[in-house]
Amino acid sequence: MGARIIDGKGFASGVRGRVAEAVARLKAAHGITPGLAVVLVGEDPASQVYVRNKGVQTREAGMASFEHKLPAETPQAELLALIARLNADPAVHGILVQLPLPGHMDAEAVINAIDPRKDVDGFHVLNVGLLGTGQKAMVPCTPLGCLMLLRDALGDLAGLNAVVVGRSNIVGKPMAQLLLNESCTVTIAHSRTRDLAGLCRSADILVAAVGRPRMIRGDWVKPGATVIDVGINRIEEEGRTRLVGDVDFEGAAGVAGAITPVPGGVGPMTIACLLANTLTACCRANGWPEPE
Ligand code: NDP
Question: Which residues are NADP(+)-binding (predicted)?
């Protein structure tokens, strides 16, 4: 195994520590506590775990955490009314509606009802447009976390060939946009891409956001490339449940220059970036300089 293992867990802990320090400074200087509201509709077990972790880490950073749990059959109008209340609440600087929403809801309408200044997930169409035009946006947490790891691993990314496998609105597309904004030459691959293996072999930066366990093999990786594995897949193996990524870690680690593990890579960065975005939203709302 030749690759350097990128320690997302340790990096995320550093980000959370810096957020906590900035929160303490804001409290001392202005008496204001950044607040994050998380809305969960229904009882999806994975979503419940994510929401619980978000609440714990929000409080650990010294922020206020407001959790709203609604039954799965809640009418959409009721959810929109809650979002309107949170938009108007000055103690709430960030609003996150946990996805996926139950089938009777229109997720786009719900996300676009969030005040874009409080849209700490960065999914509101206004933030998507701001990011796409290189303006100051709320940036989706998972791709933002990946970018932080890449900058730390590689420094300047300009001119590098980046291949992003996956074109979802929450990971693949914003990831590609962020890399383009860093002056990478970006290709987005998806289920209809031809010769995916050959394309991946051209990548100096390979980001996998597919949702298919170990789909990206070691011999798809260019020697020395930096591999970012966003995938979180739960599989049964040797009689137990394991979390694995979209990349065949053992195979890729023998070829890559650096690689994120699963777990302990991108995953912890997502909540750390959520806290950082909430702090940013609080600073912007009050006209204060934004933290680094
Ligand atoms: P989606 O299912 O929304 O998107 C998956 C993408 O992968 C699609 O664009 C799809 O292409 C593409 N794809 C599927 N099969 C293939 C294939 N055989 N070859 C090439 N491309 C393929 O997933 P998400 O973007 O929401 O999530 C991706 C992964 O990241 C999941 O494992 C998820 O659990 C994980 N994740 C991790 C997070 C974290 O915090 N670390 C946060 C969010 C997600 P097409 O568009 O053509 O269908």
Answer: 166-168, 232
